[in-house]
Amino acid sequence: METVHRHGDELLSRISERILVMGGLVEEAIGRALNALVDRDSELARRVIADDVDVDRLELEIDHLSLEALALRQPYARDLRLVTTAMKITTDLERIGDLAVNVSERAIELNTEPQLRPFIEIPMMALRAQEMVHGALDAFVKNDADRARSVIAMDDDLDRRLERVFRDLLSHMIESPASITRAMRLTFVAKYFERVGDQATNIGEQVVYMAEGRVVKHPAVLSEPSLDL
Are 182 and 110 in contact (CB under 8 A)? Predict the structure, then answer.
């Protein structure tokens, strides 16, 4: 029994370690996708796309380790929350990797045409999204619900930046119909970075649950008197 328990502890440690590796890869992918866009580096964009398979492999590995931990150790309370949180976090991280791929694909398309205008707001969005991902992973490692809440609060800033980008690009399309295709691709890029922030917010919400056993997502639903959790 002691051997089984020790192996269960090793599984939990391995799960946390692999999540950090996966998180590091997606953080790097965001930064490289941004560089591919700003520097008009299509080769770098292609590498981001090709390297996404490593993120996918880690998702499958973590899912396997989590299922093994559930079957072997039959965890409860805090350990159970860690395992279930890990399984949800990997889905968010994998989606962030996909969004970096999406940015890279749009970068390749944009690089075949003259640059529409200097990039200002979109890189700021990317850096804020990257900061949120890093903060959410840091909160996971430290089991820090307050840190996770600070990440969740940052999402409003990304939403405001997205609105500014949309308004700016819409005005540009009205003034210059020939730029519509390029402007639309840039709106997609801005939305992808905003979605990265949404995924980081999801991770933050899961960390709050892991640390405190408190559900903080869907507050409007949770406030309904008939809801019994």
Answer: yes
